[in-house]
Amino acid sequence: MALESIDVIHGTRVDASVIWLHGLGADGHDFEGLIPQLQLPSELGIRFIFPHAPYRPITLNNGAEMRGWYDLLSLDIGQKQDEAGIRASALELEVLIQQEIERGIEPSRIILAGFSQGGAVVLHTGLRYAQLLGGIMALSTYIPIADTLDTEISEAAKQVPIFMAHGRQDDVLAFEVGQRSRDRLKPINPNLEWHEYEMTHSLCMDELLHIRSWLLRRLSK
User: Which one of 15, 201, 202, 210 is the catalytic residue?
Assistant: First the structure.
């Protein structure tokens, strides 16, 4: 069964999908309000899908239950990661991708987007997906389970357009964490676009403008 999600239709004739994953402790409503701010042209028909992560105990938060794509053991991503949880959420995301394909959307018109923990799941999934997607948008995040990437990355993922962005004052996932993930991907994928901003663990107006431009380039015909 697919994750519970919120669908927001922009435009009239839908021929593209953006599946956007929220961060730890948030829910699918977190980025729903950004769609009008992107001011995308009405002729661009996009289904935005905002899934809700399941509730789970989070070790870093003393076992308190909250919505999360996987357990977070430490903010130091070099330490042990919840590989089973990350891979389980990747399978859930693949179900959503398949759902869009069955709705008639070509894989090349499907974009995976995510913020923070959601962005980590998007990177993990998109970099291993066998077909060429429309793009991966990874915001204030990092590559999880990076030591398996070289053996698991798909040939299609070496060409998929990637938008990565990070705040220089990020107080949750340090700016250097994002830089390291960028540097890990750049030699593998020449279609990576990097942006950095004077912000903390959040989004800013300049970033929204860059996201808008990138989406237009990816989805305009």
Answer: 201
